[in-house]
Write the C-alpha cells for this entry.
Amino acid sequence: MVKPKRIKKIKHQRKWQKRWYIFLIIAVFLGQFGNGELAKQITKMEREINHLSTVQETSSEWVNIYNHKTGQIMTLPIEDYLIGVVAAEMPASFALEALKAQAVAARTFTYKRLQRGNSQYHLSTDASIDQAWISEDEQRQRWGERYAEYHQKIAQVVTATAGEVVTYAGEIIEPLYHASCGGQYTENAENVWGGVRPYLVSVACHHNDDPNIAVKTVFSLSEVGQRLGLELETLPALAGQKGSLFKISTSSESNRVLEMIVGGKHFAGSQIRSALGLKSTLFSYQFDDDEVIFTTNGYGHGVGLCQYGAESYAHEGYDYRWILQHYYTGTEITLLQMSNV
Ligand SMILES: [Zn+2]
C-alpha cells in the first residue's frame, strides 16, 4: 500500500511532468516557428519597413520624359511615370503578380536609363526607343468605364514593389521584355543584338490563352518580292519550283529564323520580320498557288520577360519574384538604395 505522503509526491511529480510536456510542446512549437514561419514573418516585416521608407524616397525622385506624341518634355515622379508605363506595356486585365513583375521590369529599365544620363531627357515614350507610356487621358480612353478599377490596380502594383529593381552581380540589368515568346522558349540576347548577357538567355516558357500563337499572314509571291526588293517572278526557279526560292538557312536553338535565303539573296530573320511586318522571327512558310502563307508564333523579339508567360505563371500561383528570376537568369530582386543610382 502506498503511503499518503508517497501519493502526494507522485501527484506532484505527475503535475510537473505534465507541465514539462507543455513546456516541451511550446518549446518545439517555438523552435519550429522560429526556424520557419517566424523568421519569414520577420523578413517580411523588415521588407515592408524598408519598402515604406523606399516608397517615400523613390516617390521624391523625378524623371524627364520626352513625350513623342506631343513633342513635350514632361518632368514626372518616377513612381507616377511607372503607372503610365505598366498601363501602356501590359494589359491591365492581367494577374496582379504578372503586373508586379512588369512594374519591377519597367522600374529597372528606368533606372538603367537614368544611369546612362541624358542632357535633355532621360527616356522617350516611344516604345521603339525606350518603353511605352500613356497619360491618364489615354488610360481613360483605353479602359472606358473600367478606368478607375484598372488605374487603381496598376497604382497598387507599382506601390507594392516600390524601389525594387532586378540586379545581376550587383548591377542593374537591361530588363528586356516582350509580349509573347510563342509559348515554348525565350531567346538568347546575342541572337537578336549580338551582345551576350548572362541573364538574357533562353528559358522554357508556357502560355495559356495567347492570341499570338499560330498567326497566319498571307502574301502574294510578288508582294514578298516587292517588300524584299526582289523580282521573284522573273527568277527561273519559279517555273514549277517555287519551293527553291525560299530557304531557312539558319535557326536559333529556340527555333527562330536567324537567316533566310530568298531568291538567292541572304536576309537576317529580323529583316524578313520587319519587311513583311511579321509578329516574330519564330515563323514557318508554305506555298499555296501564287501565295505564300507565313505562320508566326509569339509577338516581339522573344528576349527576357515574356508577358503572356508571366500571366500564365501568375495564374498558376507563382509570385512576381519567381517570375522575374525565371526570365532573368541568375538575378536578384534588389531594393534600391538611392546611392546605387
Ligand atoms: Zn513565353
